């Protein structure tokens, strides 16, 4: 009975995602005013700074980085691509995988110009903004594939996608709480993706706190699970991760436009 309820919740989320529009999502969430690279208190520079710090501390590197629920975005792997030889992008929806392929193939037709993001990350790395072309080339070189994923399955990726040892590191941004009908599903999803990671591999997780919905397209309200810090910590522990660091950013009132999140968290954790 309980199992059936969980399945129904997950199926309802999958149905909501049929209305997701990559171009509208990018326009809403990754251009000003919500994503203002010039504004220090905007969400995106905070996320980029957290990722930059995590990927340059020295303990996170290796062969394979897997991005869980990439959506149509690339910012979350712009620091990691410098310390991993291979980056695997994943998403549930073909429209998002297609958006990422458009950028990868560099033949035009992308819904967003990622140049300002690449320039911003170059600056964080102490490079000239003009080095963005090298970073774009590096990213295109290390992305090995863009594949389907379902974090609600005990085995989220097709069996032959990862090497037997698993990934060295997972990064995931705004995915798990945005696709889970409740806290139990969020915790299960954390456990499911953990199976892709080798023991002592790292998880870098970005998510929202207190968010009950966001817009996947104009008029397409996607319900999400509102989390608090204590729940995130408890779910990580229950799913077999050791928390290294949790940072919280409070969303300024004037940029709360398209969802009701109160804050954003960044987690650095290690699989036990
Ligand atoms: N990572 C991007 C970002 O930082 O903006 C996109 C996040 S978007 C809020 C949530 C993403 O989760 C969407 O791209 C959606 O297609 C994907 N998704 C939906 N259901 C999923 C599932 N069951 N497993 C994995 N990803 C899923």
UniProtKB/TrEMBL annotation:
GO terms for cellular component: cytosol. This is Phenylethanolamine N-methyltransferase. InterPro entries: NNMT_TEMT_trans, SAM-dependent_MTases_sf. Belongs to the class I-like SAM-binding methyltransferase superfamily. NNMT/PNMT/TEMT family. One of its GO terms (molecular function) is phenylethanolamine N-methyltransferase activity. It comes from Perca fluviatilis. Keywords: Methyltransferase, S-adenosyl-L-methionine, Transferase. It holds the Pfam family NNMT_PNMT_TEMT. GO terms for biological process: methylation. PANTHER family: NNMT/PNMT/TEMT FAMILY MEMBER (PTHR10867), PHENYLETHANOLAMINE N-METHYLTRANSFERASE (PTHR10867:SF18).
